[in-house]
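Supplementary Text 2. Reproducibility record for the structural model of the 631-residue chain.

All settings were left at their defaults, and a single model was retained for analysis rather than an ensemble. We include the record here because the model underlies the residue-level annotations in Supplementary Table 4.
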Amino acid sequence: MITKNTNRMTDGAAVNVLDFGAVGNGVTDDAAAIQAAIDYTAGLGGGTVSIPSGSFYITTQINITSSNVNIVGAGRGVTKILSNALSCFWIEGTIGSELTATADYTVGDDAFTLASGHGYAVDDVIRVIGQRNSLSSDADDDWRLGYGTPGSATGYYGEFLQVKTQDGTTGFTTYSGLNFPDYRNDATQETDPNARAATTFQKVDMINNVTISDLTIEAQKDSNGAIRFKYGYNCLVSRVEFKQFSFTGAGVFFQNSFDCIAENSSVTYGPDIDLINNKANYNAFKFAGSQTCKVTTSAIRNCSQGVDFTYFNLNPITLFCGMYDCSVTGAEITGATSHGGSYAITFSGNQFLSVTQGISCRSRSSIIVNNTASYKGGIGASVSTNPLDYAFGIYEGWARDCVMSGNVVKGGFYAGFSVVDGGSSSEESFGYTGLTCTGNTTSNCKYGFYRNSGAYNAKTEHSGTVISDNVFRNCSTRFIYLEGISAGTIIRSNVMDTLQTGAEGILIGADTHPHTVVENNWIKDCGAGVDAIEVDGQTLTYPYTTNFTCLVRGNVFVGTNGTLVNSSSTYLNQDLYSTDAVNKVGSLPIVDGVTAPSATAGTAFMFIDVADGDLKIAFGDGVVKTITTDV
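Retained model, structure tokens:
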């Protein structure tokens, strides 16, 4: 190793902290020596700082305020930092003055003119912060990003852009366009008391290309995050082991950062974490106000919440961040969560083992795909009676336009997949949902899919929900439960196999489901005396019209079931749902024995006349024509 003391320092040689006075005996405070080695390397314009084998005790945080610095240990469990500081490593850039624009901007805009000279250069990173609170009613329903956490009810639309070209002293273009609408140069359209005066643009002097790798950090006290980035860009944490014991603090915290990654790392908490007073402070990986940052291929154990995507009050939102191919074991509250004030979060390929809740998603336009979850106590655990114990759920009313696909749920949860209103106001309630729940598998839960409106929900719009191509097995109560505001739901092509002590196979609650369709599902063994499909208080009309309330057709019923389709309404095609016909061929639109229906104006219906066996069409004006002779 070429060291400072040999006077042979050359470009690219690693700097060893031992040459700056570090001891590594687990007792001597090595913070100043490690800081000196980092500062020396930064003065060279960057390089690698080597922390060799040993236990390096620190009492003050180590600051990295220059780019291109790499901290490299000798390996996890070989290089140990015993951190008795508020943070072990704190990496922070700076942000410049706020400048306003001369015009309003919206989605896709990538050319901007500011009201004064900006001094930006090509490839500079710019932070745009809007005047609008994304969590307020000022935001359009198509763009509102949530219900504000009490006490933290303001998260501004905001994003990072990178300068592509300059246009004089006040103009510039960016490599990509804006992601949100209504960036305005005044606040005349805002009613929220925390709205900003105008959209602003700021140059950010990011800390670029900092890497911390191949070591163990053992917490000695509560922290603000063992490794914390603020205005980090293209930074990396890799192969780091975090032992938090029962101390609070994340392993890695990305704050106001851009394109950063934590990978191949682990965070473990002890048995005595304080879930009553500090439930939000045992989050292994945390993201706030960051963009396109992610955690991947990492392991989390015994946390309160494994990964947390959130925002700071009166600050910009988090967007396009994600959790990929991670494992969470033993989460006491939830395996991963995204708050309102975050947008387009991806949860992909993760394993949630022995958790009370897999993913609680409160962020709009998010993706939950190819994850697995098992309930605390294992696959054989008793089924939960708590509606918030779901494997994968969207929550608090504004996690709209999300996708749940390819997920596998094993045992014990109240529901495999849930849509859950918040519990304190109509602002936390779902109306339109826009959820696609497809290609998932769940077994041994109380419900396969659960939707129940909260007490404050008085919304009437269609939900726009699709539940299709899923497998729901061995549910204890119902395969699918839709009680509350779920109008406009499509339930199609699902396999539903065996209720344990069922109430109904599919329950569609009273007077809340206009334009709901249940079709082409395969339903087996709901149980003797148990309705396979129950539609409470609905009127089923056939053929379909623009005002039908619920359409049930094409379903196949197998094994032991009670009434196949039970409804208090009058069917216009009663024999369409006869036990014999359905058990043989399913609910088909043409079944021998169906008499002529009363078609409504502007519609027609094909049927077989039992009197002569001819195939006929009944029109809304009362005319009936035989296809073979009249058409």
